[in-house]
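Regression test attached.
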Amino acid sequence: MKRIKVSNNVIRRLPRYLQKLDELNASGVDRISSGELGRQMSLTPSQIRQDFSCFGEFGQQGYGYNVSALRAEIAKILGMDRNFTAVLVGVGNIGHALIDHFSFKHYGVELVSAFDVKKDVVGTKIGGMEIYDMENLRAVVDELKPDIAVLCVPRFYANDAAKTLIEAGVRGIWNFTNVELDIPEGTTIVENIYFSDSLLALGYYLSERIDEMEAKAAKSRGV
Amino acid sequence: MKRIKVSNNVIRRLPRYLQKLDELNASGVDRISSGELGRQMSLTPSQIRQDFSCFGEFGQQGYGYNVSALRAEIAKILGMDRNFTAVLVGVGNIGHALIDHFSFKHYGVELVSAFDVKKDVVGTKIGGMEIYDMENLRAVVDELKPDIAVLCVPRFYANDAAKTLIEAGVRGIWNFTNVELDIPEGTTIVENIYFSDSLLALGYYLSERIDEMEAKAAKSRGV
DNA sequence: TAGATTGTTAATCGATTAACAATC
DNA sequence: TAGATTGTTAATCGATTAACAATC
């Protein structure tokens, strides 16, 4: 695979391509052109071809792209075939929800263990997986050497937990804590899920929409 | 407030400014320059001033910005003072986690009711809020006229629920279902939280990092 | 006042779109 | 073969950065 520098915008579109191709596969479509894909995803055909061309030549002139072959290429680009392992830290509601309902396996990630501080949770099983005591985090992570840590602890503990995880050699943190982690430059890759940012953006767009509608209403009254 | 067309990139930075300003406020900082803010947020001072100038003139030459005044302006831009109301649909793990741990109030949104299909949940209270039967969704939403619906139902029901909500006049959907909702153009504003996209992006960056490290190792062996 | 820092205009950079030769 | 569609190069568009006059 080529390893040229690819812009973040392109990276963020890759999972959307993957999802769409899965959908096409499921509905029995086995080939698609950039034109048709663009129509379905509200992207220009040019952009789609540019995006793919960052990674190789996956299409065929006069034909388009084979859906399942392209899907496989994108899965590979996203590292879905690398058998990443993950530990989940903090089995509160969100952590619990992820264990129960998020199909890590479907994205090529194996969830190998989970941790919590609450003594009544430690030792129980959730989704078939035993919950370990947070006190053993360092030891177990040293032992299992997971690639990824899914961080779901309360805000207050976020940075401490992150520090331990990084010292134990975790390479990526999937951060649900809504805290901007204070990570030494160039060590671990952090991917944040900031619920609040998303809700606030929605608030912005709602406000904008409402203002527009009111402006229009005021104008039509004024005529 | 100005209502010029503001790019999505700018909108997505606003919640980050808000968070940083809250942090500065909490640590007793009451004024800051675009230079210092840029240092702390890894943005250029130019970008920060450009961003703010989309909405007005919030600073003062030779002084910088008053932290709490600027915070208030951004909160307003994000609609945090509009008293938006929300209903939550689907009290599984994620829905439950949001009710228990996400401070809607802190972002200016009031969660007014929640719905589920499971008869053993309906009628109980979660976080002090009664859970209504999904069968009454349309009726209750017609009655309460919430601005926002927080969609946490299983994938399969996502589009049906969205349809009902839109018909009942909901203006925005905060979508946790990982399904790209099929919404008539220009009606409701949808803000998606796609967990999987985020994990896959992490997978990409991890893969890239690993490849780089291996390339480096191979090179040093070759020397 | 002198120094600092804004808001804004101009310059640069990067991302998206268009065009088209190559070719299946 | 003729038509379709790619991959890529060039053109355009938009976002970021730099520069600087205005001014607190």
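Expected vs. actual: identical. Residues 195-222 of chain B form the longest helix (28 residues).
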